[in-house]
Every structure is written in structure tokens, then in C-alpha cells.
Amino acid sequence: SPPSTAEEQVVILVSPKKEEVVSVPMGTSTQDVATAITSEAPTVPSPTPPSPPHITQ
What we know:
single chain, 57 residues, alpha+beta, two-stranded antiparallel sheet, 1 helix, elongated
């Protein structure tokens, strides 16, 4: 679906665990978004290798 406003953009951040798709206001630095996501994610490294991406259609 299209964004709610023209001022929104989609920022895609890829982490070792999964891909994060976040909608943030234009002008928000990706570093701030990455920091916010990282702060919400567990800091313990995964004991197993990351699973392959799931392809959905």
C-alpha cells in the first residue's frame, strides 16, 4: 500500500538476524533508526547461523 503521506519514506535495514523495514519521517537519519532498532533487539548473539531468507509471493 502507498505511504500515508508524501513525507514518508521506507528505510530498509539489514541485520544479521533479519531484515527490518521501517517507515520513518523524511529527514530522520538512518543512524537514529538503526540505533532505535538495535536498542529494541536482544544483544545476545545467536548461537546458530542465520537462517536463509524466507521468500513469499
